[in-house]
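Entry 12.
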Amino acid sequence: MKDGSGGVGSRLFVLLMAFCIGGVTLGLGLGVGYVATHHFLPVPVPLEAQEFSEAFITTVRVNPVVVPIDTDEPCFVDIIPEAKAAVVSINVTAPIGRGGRGEIPGSGSGFIFAEDDDYVFIATNNHVIENTNSISISLDDNENVPARVVGYDRASDVAVIAASKVDLEEKGVPFVVARLGNSDLLRMGDSVIAIGNAMGEGQTVTRGIISALSLSIEIPDVRSRLNLDVLQTDAAVNRGNSGGPLVNRYGEVIGIVTAKLIGEDIEGMGYALPINNVYSLLMDILETGSVRRTFIGINNPTDISEFLRSLFNLPSTGILVREIQEGSPADIAGILPDDLIIRFNNVRVSSAAEIRSALDNARPGEEATIEFYRDGQLMEVSVVLGSQMP
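Predicted 3D structure (tokens):
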């Protein structure tokens, strides 16, 4: 019969050895970890000692509207073929050199928005076709057909060109008229695609979202500065995309790509004209060759900022009327010099650019409501808007 105490002693010895080995291993691991963190990894810098650059600063703008997730959202892969069939690549030549004896090529984009029995009509940017010697379009990046200018509007940077259906049929190039959407229904974060003749190399598609709504940008121009109301998108916009469509997830055109912001620290800031803002202008150009400007007859208004309001003890910010055109809608409605306009059709206006934008969104012959202060008293009148050719 064996002594049980020996077995217990042996087991105890093994257990102690395992504990010691484990302790040594743990200590070695902690030691190695300490050496690594103190000698090889960067030493944390206290928060107050860190230098922050603009790259570390993020501005968050919260959309307060809660939007449910749409599990049935159409796939862009499915809608691109139809949307792309209405998009054209535009190639131009422009005069260059003394007396315009030389020529330089250029490129842009557009989309078919209307047709009649003989022609298709293409919307694009004015800066794409302005002062050109020749214009041709391509729907398939291979076959080119000539196009001519129907009309344009420099102030809104839109233009309409036309191509013969006979020319397109002879080339065997199919086409469709683009479906137009409602840009007023857009939300920040809505998915969009830009289709266009990027870098003059043929049609490409880029995807992004609506980054901002109802922005106003100022663009330097050869003759003046353009003030445009735009959508912002992070869909890639390159040279040659100008005039092309910005398309929603249903394959509808909701904007005309018109510009991008360029800079060393700038990425993904492209702009498009909302289709609701420019459709009536395109139709005016189609019908008359130019745009009928809505006007009320207020000349040289003065913007009243918060500083001027405080300085002269005025009742509000707004637009100070300096001169009224005789016989104009404003004159007929009874608006007088020194009236301070604050609202147009229930929209707050604080600058001449804002009232010009409000007028562009109205139509000649419509009745508009104008609120203003006169001698400190708030008043309201109705104005039948007039029409003025540029």
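Annotation: The CA atoms of residues 47 and 56 lie 13 Å apart. The chain has a mean pLDDT of 80.
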